[in-house]
Write a structure and sequence with these properties.
Length: 535
């Protein structure tokens, strides 16, 4: 399925890896022998045993036997599309990354949207965060922003991720339930982890059941760095904001759709692109000068906190358009391997401990899922020239003409690129400290932004959060888990805790605690303000 953008560099590259088979191509074995019968196995007589020598039969069945690869350990169910990114406002003086400097450039893009907890065959409209993994195939290498549709996360440190996912995934003994937040383990974990208080609000809110992938925000969640040509760093948070606005289902719709059309989101994205109704997002940045790192009452390295927009406004700098459906789901969607560590010169990481773990985890899991040569898979290849000294591994499809797979050598060395010429160099952040298992003191405040979130909701939205919390907790069998969750909710809002408790038996709501009050610009999109895009 091609359209006007087939001329882009990624589309041409993908096309060069596409094998065209149609009725003009004779059916052959894998190794080129033309096949005369593919319906009946070779047998010793019409009613006799099937013989081993039938290489076509064995090849056909054996290949089928190995068709499946492990699904992603999280975010197993997803849908993707290709597209393009155009910059409108250059970040001159902020970064040397060309993707953020050249407004004349159209950069090929790719996005995979996903649910988190369900398996590959699960339904689309469950209550769950949604993955919003984007890739720009820039002239300086792939930039992957592997985000979610929520700007915060459940935990602060990646060492907790296996615990979190084990609690949210189905029970080990009976694989029940599929729904993410509707069982004791989930709420046991969440209520034992005060750091999840803010994310609990997001997941219980209407944001947990988006109307469409096309109507979702995306967030990079972590604080990253942009580095300019002089080596100066600016902290950055990334936002994708949909031109169609942010919309949710109501719970009743979500439940019905789960039964009637479990592919609802996947179909919606596919159909819109086929119909030429290309979804678009603005890429927004919140920029914080290096010297302002400590001026907030939260830690920029804490992924359970946003930067409220009244403190740092979001500046929209470019537009992402998705305009081309994949040709082959397995090759292009199942085999895409996003990695948070895929950044380009002019960017770097912050010391967010959640991000550090992710920078290890994605490549590590993809070695199991796809093999060490996953970078050779067409959807994962950059469009810029690339050359490495990596070799061999399973399977390796490309012969390298260069014999010298080591550096340096005296024969045919792959040249290095100085930072001034576009070579990547890590930001020389000054660090000091003793080695310890610890977080900064601001990591220990868990409630105030959850309060801001709840307070910024309209009355209808609050009703939805209360109903969602009543539903989720009423599915828990253990009173101690319900009681613990209610105590946490009470720290967010006393009235909220009281109303949720009405649906439960044997839980006690503690006395009210001070509420940090209302803040209008918690996050402008959350409070329902629509934005007009003129770019
Ligand atoms: C997959 C987002 C935290 C491990 C994904 C995907 C997204 C995502 C969008 C799907 C990628 C795709 O479409 O192929 C996030 C966000 C996080 C977060 C926004 C927090 C801010 C973590 C952490 C870990 C982790 C802390 C591990 C320490 C994984 C793994 C996969 C995955 C193993 C499967 C990747 C694959 O098989 O290709 N995540 N994640 N994530 N995530 Fe995360």
């Amino acid at each position: 399925v091609v359209n006007s953008t087939v001329g882009d560099a990624k589309a041409r590259q993908m096309e060069s890896f596409t094998i065209h088979q149609d009725s003009t191509t004779p059916l052959t074995t894998y190794f080129g022998t033309k096949v005369s019968d593919t319906d009946k196995a070779l047998r010793a007589g019409a009613r006799g045993p099937t013989v081993l020598e039938d290489f076509h039969n064995r090849e056909k069945i054996s290949h089928f036997d190995h068709e499946r690869i492990p699904e992603r350990v999280v975010h197993a169910r997803g849908a993707s599309a290709f597209g393009e990114f155009k910059l409108h406002i250059p970040l001159t003086g902020i970064t040397s990354a060309k993707i953020f400097l050249d407004t004349g450039k159209t950069t090929p893009a790719y996005v995979r949207f996903s649910t988190v907890g369900g398996s590959r065959g699960s339904a689309d409209t469950v209550r769950d965060p949604r993955g919003f993994a984007s890739r720009l195939y820039t002239d300086e290498g792939n930039w992957d922003l592997v985000g979610n549709d929520m700007p915060v996360f459940f935990i602060q440190d990646a060492i907790k991720f296996p615990d979190l996912v084990h609690a949210l995934k189905p029970e080990p003994h009976n694989e029940i339930p599929q729904a993410q937040t509707a069982h004791d383990n989930a709420w046991d974990f969440l209520s034992l982890h005060p750091q999840s208080t803010h994310m609990q609000q997001w997941i219980l809110s209407d944001r947990g059941i988006p109307r469409s992938f096309r109507m979702m925000q995306g967030f990079g969640v972590h604080t990253f760095r942009l580095i300019n040509a002089e080596g100066r760093s600016t902290f950055v948070k990334y936002h994708w904001t949909p031109h169609l606005g942010t919309h949710s289902l109501v719970w009743d719709e979500a439940l019905k759709l789960n039964g009637q059309d479990p592919d609802f989101h996947r179909r919606d994205l596919w159909d819109a692109i086929e119909a030429g109704a290309y979804p678009k997002w603005e890429l927004g940045v919140q920029l914080v000068a290096e010297e302002d790192e400590h001026k907030f009452d939260f830690d920029l390295l804490d992924a359970t906190k946003i930067i409220p927009e009244d403190l740092v406004p979001v500046k929209n700098i470019g537009t992402l358009t998705l305009n081309r459906n994949p040709v082959d789901y397995f090759t292009e969607v199942e085999q895409v391997a996003f990695c948070t560590q895929h950044i380009v010169p002019g960017m770097d990481f912050s010391s967010d401990p959640l991000l550090a773990g992710r920078n290890f985890s994605y490549q590590d899991t993809q070695i199991t899922r796809l093999g060490i040569n996953f970078g050779d898979i067409p959807v994962n290849r950059p469009v810029c020239p690339f050359a490495t000294n990596q070799r061999d591994g399973k399977p390796n499809m490309f012969s390298k003409s260069n014999r010298m797979a080591y550096h340096p050598n005296r024969h045919d060395v792959l040249p290095l690129t100085a930072p001034a010429e576009g070579g990547f160099a890590p930001y020389p952040e000054k660090v000091s400290g003793v080695k310890e298992r610890a977080h900064g003191p601001k990591f220990n405040e868990f409630v105030s932004q959850a309060q801001l979130f709840y307070n910024s909701m309209s009355e209808v939205e609050k009703k939805h959060i209360i109903a969602a919390a009543q539903f989720e907790l009423s599915k828990c069998f253990e009173t101690v888990v319900q009681q613990s969750a209610i105590e946490r909710f009470n720290l967010v809002d006393h009235d909220f805790a009281l109303q949720v408790a009405e649906a439960l038996q044997d839980v006690k709501v503690p006395d009210a605690v001070p509420n940090h009050g209302k803040r209008s610009e918690y996050l402008s999109q959350v409070t329902g303000k629509s934005q007009v895009f003129t770019a």
